[in-house]
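Data availability (excerpt). The following record was deposited with the supplementary files.
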Amino acid sequence: TGGLELNKNDWAVNAMNLAGYFVSEHAFPQAHICLHSAEKIIQGNHDAQLNANMSMAYAKFYYQYLELSKE
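Predicted structure:
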């Protein structure tokens, strides 16, 4: 791997942040892919803060999706 190591927590946080951008642009399919990817990479991680951030990211996604769908 040439000495490059993947930090799964950083990767997941970056994917959640990217999902937030896509949500702000109403690009929900892309946001969902980012969230699903982040969820899979942290699966089994017991970091309470990271898991709380994951839950919050999904909550923001669904809130915005529902807000847009009622218009």
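Summary of structural features: The helical segments are 8-24, 28-41, 48-69.
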